[in-house]
């Protein structure tokens, strides 16, 4: 299975936010925003928005990736667990 997450070389700074603590609407909005960012789709396969969101949701459920919130920039990112601090 192709990973949709971005590969980052540095630790993501911020607070890890458990995805199950977000409302369904907030999580859906974050996932949609994330998978439509530049650089998150490599173009190897053409997946629908719903399919890409489902991929990342499964990665969150399996604990492969986490949501990191940066209070300084008031932004959230989804990164591999090993790239997260907090």
Q: Give the H and E element order.
A: EHHEE
Uncertain runs are 1-9
The total count of helices amounts to 2
Number of strands: 3
How many strands, what sense, and barrel or not for the largest sheet? Answer: 3 strands, antiparallel
User: What is the average per-residue confidence, as pLDDT, rounded to a whole number?
Assistant: 84
Radius of gyration: 12 Å
CATH class, please?
A: Mainly Alpha
How many domains? The number is: 1
Q: Give the overall shape, derived from the CA principal axes.
A: globular
Could you say what the CATH architecture is? Orthogonal Bundle
For this structure, what is the CATH homologous superfamily? Answer: YehU-like
Structural class: alpha+beta
- Sheet-strand content, in percent, reads 15-25%
Q: Which fold name is given in CATH as the topology?
A: Arc Repressor Mutant, subunit A
Distance between the first and last residues' Cα: 28 Å
Strand order of the largest sheet: 1-2-3
Helix content: 25-40%
Describe the structure.
The protein is α+β, with helices and mostly antiparallel strands and about 90 residues long. The chain has one domain: Arc Repressor Mutant, subunit A (Orthogonal Bundle), CATH 1.10.10. The chain is built from two helices and three strands, in the order E-H-H-E-E. The protein has helices at about 25-35, 50-60, and strands at about 15, 65-70, 75-80. A three-stranded antiparallel beta sheet has the order 1-2-3. Mean pLDDT is about 85; it is low at about 1-10.
């Amino acid at each position: 299975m192709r990973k949709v997450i971005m590969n980052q070389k540095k630790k993501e700074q911020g607070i890890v936010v458990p995805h199950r603590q977000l409302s369904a609407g907030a999580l859906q909005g974050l996932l949609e925003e994330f998978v439509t960012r530049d650089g998150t789709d490599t173009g190897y396969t053409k997946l629908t928005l719903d399919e890409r969101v489902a991929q990342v949701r499964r990665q969150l459920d399996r604990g492969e990736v986490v949501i990191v919130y940066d209070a300084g920039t008031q932004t959230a990112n989804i990164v591999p667990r090993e790239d997260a601090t907090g």
